[in-house]
What does this fold into?
Amino acid sequence: MAYATNDGTRIAYDVAGPADAETVTFLEGLAYGTWMWNWQREGLDDYRTVVMDNRGTGDSDAPEGPYTAAEMAADLEAVLDDAGIERTHLVGASLGGMIAQRYAIDYDRAESVALLCTTHGGEESVPIPEETQARMLSVPEEYGPAERIRHKMEPAFTDEFWAENQDVVEQIVDWRLETDPSEDAYEWQSAAAVGFDASDELAAIDVPTLVLHGTADRVLPPENGRLLAERIPGAELVEIEGGSHLFFVERADRVTDELREFVENV
It folds into this structure.
């Protein structure tokens, strides 16, 4: 890992792939580490790919929060500047999609933006369903760290994938045990998501934009993707039928193919 610094906060990042290829930069969701994009980075290994640990996660510093999407977009700017990257295709999922929106509005290195399972925030967005919130908040006290992760993560998958792919789930749990933020840093990152609202600024995103959303997303319902596509000028909406919140894991090949086609045609 390399490190960039934003206002005294060290942000860990990794660059892979051919130095002379176009760059694709990936942004993770709440509490997730760079492992989240392993499938897409492997599938796009002919591109130069960049991932970073959001502040509070993995090898990045965890300054006292709460955090904002604007701070995290500034972290991204510091990473791209440190890596000498002038232009990049941005791919952000969930909280990472919020950071990508903020970055595309405030900075000028984005060649294109792909927004996965995310929202523009604000009063007009569709909130996390009460059933999902209840599941994520009702963790039995006797559960250990791995059991807590499994319990809170289950609604992000489809029931079918969860039942049939426990090997993948266990691998993700192992990765999360290594990189997840502390309880405090989790709350600080959560504040960035809860406080995010770009609903009145989306017209400022003036680069090609792809919105990808699963129709069975139980965390951020698919209406959020439709709202984004309606408000970002010229945005393309692709809905993955039956796709979960973590559809880029469940349907990794499909998502990678969609991203490749989009980037190649920018």
